[in-house]
Every structure is written in structure tokens, then in C-alpha cells.
Write a structure and sequence with these properties.
Strand content: 5-15%
Shape: elongated
Helix content: 55-70%
Number of strands: 6
Length: about 190
């Protein structure tokens, strides 16, 4: 029976790691005033009738701290890329010079920084809710196993271990959010 508890705990830890990975991905998309190719992740361009990820139709490089350069593999892709960036509403206006598309990141104002911190905290809260939902589901699974004959001591031990994993993950979420907030607020 304890093998069953181990499987539940392993599955819980695995799902929680996925929630943390998702949070890290979402936080990396929030720009902190520095140019990074991740700003344009998730933008799809119409390429011969198929929506295609921008990084598959162009070379994306960081020219300097505030400039992102996008060089399409084919010249006829300049206009569709420009259109896709505008449609993605990432808060940047593309500059097309016939060879490259450049995205200039304006310096962040204090107000914009505070908005970004709110967004970071909202993402952190979403991750905490996901972690708590995973914990709830795991605890229900243990209670169900207890009704099917699992000893009360084994169930309590499993619940305690799941709570320990949950607490560690919540602390990790808080740390990720603090780090991102510090990055955003650094002028």
C-alpha cells in the first residue's frame, strides 16, 4: 500500500514542477526593459497559408539592450511579420527598413513598472492556485485509497508529505516573483 502513496506523491511532485515551469515561462515573457527574443514568443505569422511561429520564419537577435532585430528568411515575409507583431499587441511598434524589422523597447516608466509587477504577482497567484488544486486532488486520491483499505497512519503520512511538497513549491513561486519584481524595478 505504501507503494501506492509513493506513486501519488511522485505524481503530485511532477505536476507541481510543471506548474512551476509554466510560471517561469510566463514570467520570462514579461519584459523588464531589456530586449530578449522571448518577447516575440507566441507570435504566429501567416506563412504560405499556415500559422507559423515567428522564430521559424525569421532570425531574431538582440542588437543592444533596447533593440530586437528580426530578419526574415524570405524578403516577402517582412509585411506579414510586421502585421503579426502589430496584431499580437505586445506594446511595441515594428520599424521596417526593407531588410530587417526592428523593435525598439522604450524605457519603462515608474507607472509601467508597477503595472508589470502587478502582472508578475497575478501570474504568481495563478501558479499558487494551480499548486493548491494539485494538492487538493492528491489529498482526495489518498482519502479515496483510505476508504479502500489504506491504513490511517499511511494516509496521514502521505498527506503530510504532500503538504510539505506544496509548501516548498509555494516558497519557490514567491522567490520567482520576488526575483522578477526586483529585475523589473531595477532602473
Amino acid at each position: 500500500m505504501s507503494e501506492l502513496i509513493e506513486n501519488i506523491i511522485d505524481e503530485t511532485a511532477s505536476q507541481m514542477k510543471k506548474a512551476i515551469s509554466h510560471l517561469e515561462t510566463e514570467l520570462s515573457k514579461i519584459r523588464a526593459g531589456k530586449a530578449t527574443p522571448m518577447i516575440v514568443d507566441g507570435i504566429f505569422v501567416e506563412y504560405y497559408g499556415n500559422p507559423t511561429s515567428l522564430n521559424q520564419v525569421a532570425n531574431i537577435t538582440v542588437q543592444d539592450a533596447r533593440t530586437l532585430s528580426i530578419q526574415p528568411w524570405e524578403k516577402n515575409m517582412l509585411a506579414p511579420i510586421e502585421k503579426a507583431i502589430m496584431a499580437a499587441n505586445i506594446g511595441l511598434t515594428p520599424a521596417n527598413d526593407g531588410q530587417f524589422i526592428r523593435l525598439f523597447l522604450p524605457p519603462l516608466t515608474e507607472e509601467r513598472r508597477k503595472d508589470l509587477v502587478k502582472k508578475v504577482n497575478a501570474e504568481g497567484e495563478h501558479a499558487k492556485v494551480a499548486i493548491r488544486n494539485i494538492r487538493r486532488d492528491s489529498l482526495e486520491h489518498i482519502k479515496k485509497q483510505q476508504k479502500d483499505g489504506l491504513s490511517e497512519d499511511a494516509a496521514k503520512d502521505g498527506e503530510g508529505r504532500i503538504q510539505g511538497i506544496t509548501d516548498k513549491q509555494i516558497l519557490q513561486i514567491d522567490q520567482h516573483c520576488k526575483d522578477k519584481e526586483k529585475e523589473i524595478m531595477t532602473v
